[in-house]
Predict the 3D structure of the following.
Amino acid sequence: MIVAAVSFIFRLLPHPANFIPLGALALFCGTYIKSKWGILVPVAVMAITDYIVGWHSLIFFTWGSFLLMGMIGWWIQKRKNISRVVGGTLAGSVLFFIITNFAVWAFTPLYVKTMAGLVQSYYMAIPFFRSSAMGDLFYVGVFFSLYEVASYLIVKYRKRQVIPVQNN
């Protein structure tokens, strides 16, 4: 919930375009929340913040992209290692880029509805993809590292708290 709260706050604060922790939140929730419903946490954060910053016509594509990123987290959950976390993060960033920019091309008047218009849509979004992927990698690094360190310290603390049994 702390990670969700941080993601909520960072989405509302001024930030470079697309450099937000929502993709990382989706991957984190998919990986660490054992319930299948955990992937709805980033969608809830998006819904609340979209209500505050303004609804748009492509919300179901953005929200759906975050659900898919959460599903990548399910895959990582049982096979967690650094390379899978980094690969899953990049895969999620690419999925978000492909899905949302296809939606921009298909459902807004910004680009002509030809193959050239689709290519232009993706080309114009490259700076946003760069920022989004860097944000995803940064926040995944922070969230996953803090969680793993905290888990390690908790286990270590609990082992120290074992009270030896005294023989009478």
